[in-house]
Amino acid sequence: MKLEELRFGTELLKRGFASMQKGGVIMDVVNADQAKIAEEAGAVAVMSLERVPSDIRKMGGVARMADPQKVIEIIEAVSIPVMGKVRIGHFVEAQVLETLGVDMIDESEVLTPADEQYHIDKKRFKVPFVCGARDLGEALRRINEGAAMIRTKGEAGTGNVVEAVRHMRNIMGEIRMLKGMDKQEMTDYAREIEAPAELVIECAERGRLPVVNFSAGGIATPSDAAMMMQLGADGVFVGSGIFKSTNPELMAKAIVEAVNHFNEPEVIARVSRGLGDAMPGLDIHTLREDEVLQTRGR
Amino acid sequence: MDVKIGVLALQGNVSEHIDAFVLALDRLGCGRSSEVVTVRHPADLEGCQALALPGGESTTISRLIDKNHLYEPIRTFPGGIFATCAGMVLIATHVDDARIHTLNLIDMTVDRNAFGRQRESFETDLPIDSLGGESFHAIFIRAPVATHAGTSVKVLSRLDQGIVAVEQEKHMALSFHPELGGDTRLHERFLKKIGI
Question: pTM here?
Answer without folding.
Answer: 0.96
